[in-house]
Structures are given as C-alpha cells and as structure tokens.
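Async update (no meeting this week)

Hi team, since we skipped the sync, here's where things stand on the single-chain job. The sequence we agreed to prioritize is pasted below, unchanged from the tracker. I ran it this morning and attached the output directly underneath so nobody has to dig for it. Comments welcome in thread, and please keep replies under the output.
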Amino acid sequence: MDELKELFHRCIVPIQYDHHLPHGTGFFVSPNLVLTCYHCVSDSKQPIFIRWKNSPIVAGLENYSEELDLAFLEVDIKQHPCVLFDPEIDVDNLVYSFGVTKTNPTGESFSLRFEGYSNSFKYYKFKEGNVVPGNSGAPLLNLHTGYVCGITRTTRDLRFDLGAGAIPCSTAFEFRQDLLTRQLEYHNANTDWETTLDRHFKSPLRRKSFVFASSAKSSSGEVYIERPAESIAEQHLRIYDQPLLIFGGGKVGKTKLLMKLLMSSKKLGKRTIYLDFNLLDNERRMSAAAFYRFFCKEIAGQLGIKFLDEFDLDNIYDCKTFMETFVIKAPPHSLVMAIDHLDKIVDSDFYSDFMVMLRMWTENDKHPDQFIWTQFQLVLAAPVQLRLLFTMINGSNLDSYPIPIGDFSRDEISTLAAQFGIVFSEIDLENIDKYLGGYPVLVSQLIKEYKYSNNNDINAILSKAIRHDGIFGEHLYSLLDRVQNNSIARNALLRVINDMPLSSVQQQYLLLRWGLIKQMENGRFALRCGIYKDFFKEHLV
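Output:
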C-alpha cells in the first residue's frame, strides 16, 4: 500500500491566501481542477493559492456551494496526478489521509475508522483519529478498496482522538455533473492508480471503481436504471422552453432525473445550475432576504461568478437585476436551472412571490426584455403537481409540463435486480408487488438486503419487514413518529385506512409528499403499499 500512498500524496496540495501559511488542504480530481471545502476559501477579498512543488500557484474559484461546503479551484498546472473516487465504505473500514496543520504547514498524515452516517446520511462519521484545523478539504483514502471515498470536513474534538465528519464523494458527483466524465477520461488515459491497485491486491476479481461502470450507474455511484420519464423529459427540454415539473411522492428518483437532465444539457453546451432547497436552514426558509441571498449566491458559486457581500438581494426585483446583470447575458447564453425540493419553501411568506418571479422569467413573450430570457429553461422537482401547491396557498399557478415518476414496474424491478446479479422468480415478483407495490426506495433496500445478507428467501424477509428489527423497521417507525406528531397527517391517514375520502387539500398534500398514499383511478386515495397498510393499521392510534 506504500506505493498507493505515495501516489495519493502527490495529488494533495496545501491551500493558502496570498503569502500566508497554508490553512487548508485540497486535491486534484481532474486535470487543472482542485477540490476542497468551501470554508477553506470563503474569504472572497483575498486571492487564493495552492502550493505545488514548493511554489505558490494562483487558483481561481471556479465553482462552489456554501451549503454543501464544496469548492472547485482552477489552476494552470500541466502535469499532475489525480485521485480516483469510489463512494463505497463499510463500518470499521480504515481510511488514510494527509493534510496541513498549524504546526506543520507541509502536512502530516492521519487515520480514521468509519463509524456510520450522520445528518440524514449527508455526511460520513469517523472515529479513532484526531483531525485538526488545516486538515479540512483533505481526501480520505479507503484502505479497504484503494479509492478515495470522501473529503475531510470537521473535527469531533481538537484535543482527543474522537474522529471527524466528512463529505461523501457522491455529494461532489451530485453537485458537479461533469465530474464523473472528467474522472473517467483522466483515468482511462492515465492508468497509474488502477495499475498500482492491481499490484497491491493481486486479484483479477478485484472490484473496480464505480467510475469505470458509469454507464450502469448514476452520477453518485448508485446502481441506476433508465425509466420512461427520462426520454420524455430530455425531449421536452431540447424542443420546448416551457418549464418542466418532475413530481412524485416520496423517494422515487426525482433528484436522479434532475441530474441526468443537467448532464444532457451540459453535453449540448448549455450552462447548468442545481439548487437544492432541502439544504435551506430555518432562517432561509422563513426570511425572504436570507433566502434570496442564498439563491443568488448559490447561482454565482456554480457559475464561477464573484459574489460580493454588498449586493442588495432582498426581493424578487433584486434577484432579477442580479440575474440580468451577471448571469443571463454571459455566454453561453443557454442556461438550464434545476430546483430540487421546491416544496421546502411552500410554507414561507415569500413562496408566492418567488413563483411569480419564476413565471416572469419563463414567460418570455410577456417579458419586456424577452431577448435576454429566451434561452433560459427551468426544471422543478416537487412531490406533487404545482396546481395542488397553489390551491393549498391560494396562489397563482406556473404553467409547467408535468413529468410524473411513479413506482417500479415488475420489468424495472427485474432489471434493477439483474444489476446485482439477482434473478427473481415470478412468485418473488408477486410477493414484492404485494408488499412493496414497486415503491423504489423500498424495492432498492430489499434488493440490497437480499444480495448482501445470508437470507435469500424473499417471503421470509418480507414477512418480518414491519417488525422493529425487520428490514424496513427504521423506515416505518420514523414515518409513524412523523405522522403521530402531525395532527393533520394523523387524521388524514386514519381516514385513508378506514376508506374515507380526504377532507382537505392539505391532507392530500402531506400524505402524498411523504409518499404514504397513492391516488386510484376512481380519484380516491389508498395506502401506497401492502406493508404500509399492515403497519399503520396495527400501530396508528
């Protein structure tokens, strides 16, 4: 492993402001592109440098997200190695890293052991190591796989070896849609990393990085299957300028489809922006001024526009001015903006104004500066159709083309299983349909359980699914807690269980948003799948 560590070290660079000592760490992910944490380079008033072969090299802030704490720096360096990513990591896997510190600006190594996830699976959690200031942005080399799995972000204690928090590399792939292609192109042309691993592991069966299986996987490294909604959405985006709405309750693949659309748009030479409202904290969800500042700052970061704190961004008119001054007129003029988890701001006082702003931007024939906005395209993702959101808040609608994403068909379940080397029998598929109804998040979890556990009896797995220690126990009891603590949702779900019509739009919205119900052909609502029916009939009181 020493040979791999030496190659790994050559990919790492200290981050510094002007002539100050290094205060953060970064690493090469593709030619001329360094990845680090945003908080390491967030002082916009100071020029950024990396140290390369003992010399400071100027670095431009090419793309960033303050919310994700990720930043990409562009540098002019001709020859350098790049890390190879793979997000796979298991509990107790040991990771190795190297980063600068206050006492050692040239850097020193540290090791951590993977403990699990934190904050709704957004971050890795590590133990048994000491991360100190300066280590932020350092890559984490999983010694079990030989690939870089994440980016060091925070320490759990400065004094003791209590571990650290880290950003999974899958987050970087989701944020930057071309990163997978950049990794693939570099490592197809430069085989040093894979060759070194071949020498170390000495096994022809060694699992290769997900980067080399990108045609079968999503940009975040998860197994992925193409669905009919994709071709419809891509065709619409190529031909029409009408806003696109991707909708479906619960976890059905809305974000994955957004990412696919942005990658396709990028290949056509368009600029792309991805805004995830799931990252908004309470202040930004409730304060118009805080929200609009976040909105414009994220856009600036992703397009490499220098954002100044003195910008006035308190309302939709300030946002329009910002967009027209710094964004819309910049080449290439074609721009696709994707907004994920739109429903996260539906309870805010500024939601109606925000949607009015989006309508102004997209209704080009009514816009006084229509020639500026004609190549602006908007893609939204929400759990329900916009008309339901607007009915609930008595707002005005945004004309959009709806793309529904529903549950897996039996053929899609079989296709997904085949990517894990699994062939389900007809009886297995009948049981999956009976209990799960094709709900993607549950089907995916079942397939992984079937693949990696010692239990290959689908019926046995599903028969125990609703128990505390069952495969869906954590998921079900989390939903139960959410429903029990929301009187509207609780009363609504009891009505569905007792085959009674829902009495308000808000009841429909909540249960559809959480993925608990589906609408039948007769217009009535029913529980989404068999295990929900069994579980909530037994536990909801």
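Quick observations from my side:
Confidence is low (pLDDT under 50) at residues 214-222.
The domain at 2-174 is CATH 2.40.10.120 (Thrombin, subunit H).
Reply here if anything looks off.
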